[in-house]
Amino acid sequence: MTDEDKTIEHADSKPSTEEEIPMNLMNIYGTVPTEGNNQLNSSEKKPQETPTESNCLQRLRETFARPPRELLAIAIRNATMIVLLCTLVWLDHGSEILPGGSVFGIIIVCSCAMIGGKLVGLIKLPTLPPLPSLFGMLLAGFLIRNTPVISDNVQIQHEWSSSLRSIALSIIVVRAGLGLDTKALKKLKCVCVRLTMGPCLVEACVSALLAHFLMGLPWQWGFILGFVLGAVSPAVVVPSMLLLKKEGYGVKKGVPTLLLAAGCFNAILAITGFNTCLGIAFSTGSTVVNVLSGVLQVLTGVATGSLLGLFIQYFSSSDQGNPVWKRGFLVLGFSELVVLGSLYFGFPGSGEILCTVLMAFFAVTFWTRNKEVIENIVRVAWIVFEPLLFGLLGAEVSVASLRRETVGLCVATLGITVLIRILTTFLMVCFAGFNTEEKIFIAFAWLPKATIQAALGSVALDTARVYGDTLLEDYGMDVLTVAFLAILITAPIGHLLIGFLGPRLLQKAEHQDKDEEV
Q1: Helix axes 371-396, 158-178, angle to 10 degrees
Q2: What is the pTM of this model?
Q3: What are the pLDDT tens digits along the chain (518 aa)?
Q4: How far is CA 348 from CA 107, 230, 291, in A?
Q5: What's the burial of 400, exposed, middle or buried (CB within 10 Å: 0-12/13-18/19+)?
């Protein structure tokens, strides 16, 4: 063997500098040390890290390299958005964002209502669906108003709260217009009409009688209260019916489909009746002039709504870019314009409600493919305004201003009307092909009150405040109190009854027929 071969063999037998370096250091620093770096490290004689220390450093780096997830990410994101919003409002409005300002109060009420809704949604009972989040939102606003230190710093001007509730009402009406199902109406026909009109009108008349003779309200205000109580809550009934329909309960007889279709028509009827009575209560002049004015408002609302619906349908065609979002924006924008414009010009009545319903209905008549997407856009707007609506309603009720006799009369009126409503609903679905168990379920499923009551409960009070009449404000406060108690009592009870009675009284279909789906 020559000297050159020995030299090469000796060089190959030496371990390389890179092989002596632990692989974990290469992973940490991401580069391979050079020869100069090795000499520098050897001159510094830095102690070698133990495997435990190396793993801890690697875990820390991996933890901070990844964005947070789930609850931590949601909390950080929401807190950042709130701080950013408060900063922008403070730069523009100054004191309104500070404690005692309207913007500060709206943010606190909305945040607490959302938290209350989430907490109530965590309450789960065996074999029953979770409680509706609106119950927690209502209680959150009520606690804010009646907690001494908090109520002094959370102050919202009546104009601000009235405008926000009006916007929420317009969103509810748009959702009702989008939810109108002509196929279900043609299929169920008479029973759907009876279930829509019968319980609502009977309860409105009974409530007017009780409010006049027990609570001392004028007849106009008695019917205002009656139509507030006459509506069933879509926020409670619709999710429960969809859950039962998904599991196959009552599908063979079309019970969930009937309640879903009649719920939309019932809400429209109650809102229309309420606005008509409200216009009569605050009108001046002879009765004949008021009746003619109401008829004119109805005709104007029908014509305007039809024209706006056709306008949206024609000028947001599918050949334009992103037509779905444009359609959703136009539907929501015109609905807000109609409702807020009628309040601004002093035209309370049923015209704007019919206009909004028909506009939404005609706008999506030929958008069968995109109707669900538009409904989701409107649903996002409702998610934003739902905690504001129920939180602001709860914040209107003050324990200090309530009298015991008033609360007792309100509870008595509510209890009697609920019993008569259950009996009326049972009679309305007779001779429609349902057995006794199904009739009992429909009667109790038509019980919950929440969404329409929250939207309409304070409208009469807001209108009375505009006129500055103390007596009318007292009447409006009575209507609001009954609406608050109706939500507080009937929403959770009705929700639990639907979840409890549905699987026990309705027949479960083994194979859901496509013809039953509407």
Answers
A1: 150
A2: 0.74
A3: 454 454 444 444 444 444 444 444 444 444 444 444 444 444 444 445 455 556 766 666 665 555 555 667 777 777 888 788 777 777 766 677 778 788 888 889 998 999 999 898 888 777 676 778 888 999 999 999 998 888 888 888 888 888 888 888 888 888 878 877 677 667 777 888 899 899 999 999 999 999 999 989 999 999 999 999 998 888 788 888 878 888 888 888 888 888 888 888 888 888 888 888 888 888 776 667 777 777 787 788 888 888 888 888 776 666 666 677 777 888 888 888 888 887 777 666 667 778 888 888 887 776 666 777 888 888 888 888 989 989 998 898 888 877 778 888 889 999 999 999 999 999 999 888 899 999 999 999 999 998 888 888 888 888 888 888 889 989 999 999 999 999 989 988 988 899 889 888 998 876 544 444 44
A4: 29, 19, 13
A5: exposed
User: What is the C-alpha separation between 247 and 127, in angstroms, rounded?
Assistant: 13
346 by Cβ neighbours in 10 Å (0-12 / 13-18 / 19+) ranks as: exposed
Q: Which residue is listed with tokens 């057995």?
A: 435
Q: CA-CA distances (angstroms) from residue 264 to 39, 197, 210, 271, 332?
A: 81, 12, 27, 11, 18
d(CA 305, CA 361): 9
Q: Give the number of other CB atoms < 10 A from CB of residue 460.
A: 29
**Dihedral sign computed on CA atoms, order 266, 378, 384, 307:** negative
Contact in structure between 397 and 487 (CB atoms under 8 Å)? no
Residue 156's φ and ψ, nearest 5 degrees, are: -125, 130
| 496-to-325, 431, 448 alpha-carbon distances in Å | 37, 27, 10
Closest CA to 153 of 93, 113, 104: 104
Q: Please count the residues of the chain.
A: 518
Structure tokens at 17: 């500098």
For the stretch 87-92, contacts whose Cβ atoms lie closer than 8 Å and that sit 24 or more positions apart, written own/partner, are: none
Q: Is 189 exposed, middle or buried (0-12, 13-18, 19+ CB in 10 A)?
A: exposed
**Nearest-angstrom CA–CA distance, 22 and 10:** 24
